[in-house]
Amino acid sequence: MDTQIESFEERTKPIKGLFNWTMGYRQDSDIVHSFGSVARKNHTDATRDAVLVKRLRSKSHLVAWYPTRCGGSAAEYVARLASHVSVDVYGRCGNLRCQTLSFYDHDEDCYEMLAGKYFFVLVFETDTCADFLTRALHRFLRYDVVPVVKGGANYSAVTPPGSVVDVKQYPEPYEVAALMMKSAVNFTQYSEYLSWKRDHDVILHDHDDFCGLCDKLYSKEYVKKSSHEDVNAWWHSGTNCVM
């Protein structure tokens, strides 16, 4: 799901002061809706390392990108990165296809194929907005592949430590390229990105947050007496979205 940077000021004028809660990806929402989270397992997976060795041996390519929109700052970054390493681009922005028709309609076959073939996948936000995470991030985190992320979220706060490569931490794309190439040929270094999987699982939130909303609607403890005077002003405050 892409963010849509649009003004809805006119549409919200008639409903100023009517909303008690906000719900969305923003961390300052009354009810934060995310596409996934990470939870600790009840027990450590003792067979994890042996399985990982087998899976890593099946990987044959370095990095893939499957964008939802062509152009923009993400494409510009990928072009710079591609001058240092080969980036396989899938979908209408590239010349490669998943065997199935769709990637972003919850097509698990495509996620599984990319994760099995590549060491890294680029998970770049179409619009860089504070706190926003694409649904693809947590879906890829379920597999043995390392997401390379670019966006407006605080990734260290919403992903397991060391589980992703945040391009903001590297001044130049060639540094990210060098890191990927080095990690792909060093099992110990690469497996560190996946070490959190021994005792943690990824939970997808496609519908869970809406169940949580219903729970709060029926909870007397969560009744909120105040209201948001200007939802439009709240929505645009501090978003700092960049196309």
From TrEMBL:
SUPFAM superfamilies the UniProt entry points to: UDP-Glycosyltransferase/glycogen phosphorylase
Places the protein is found: Golgi apparatus membrane; Golgi apparatus, Golgi stack membrane
Protein's recorded name: Fucosyltransferase
Fucosyltransferase C-terminal domain boundaries: 57-234
Keyword presence, Protein biosynthesis: no
Enzyme class: transferase
Its membrane topology: Single-pass type II membrane protein
Organism: Rhipicephalus sanguineus (Brown dog tick)
InterPro entries per record: Glyco_tran_10_C, Glyco_trans_10, GT10-like_C_sf
Gene Ontology cellular component list: Golgi cisterna membrane; Golgi membrane
Entry's EC annotation: 2.4.1.-
Any one GO molecular-function label of the UniProt entry: fucosyltransferase activity
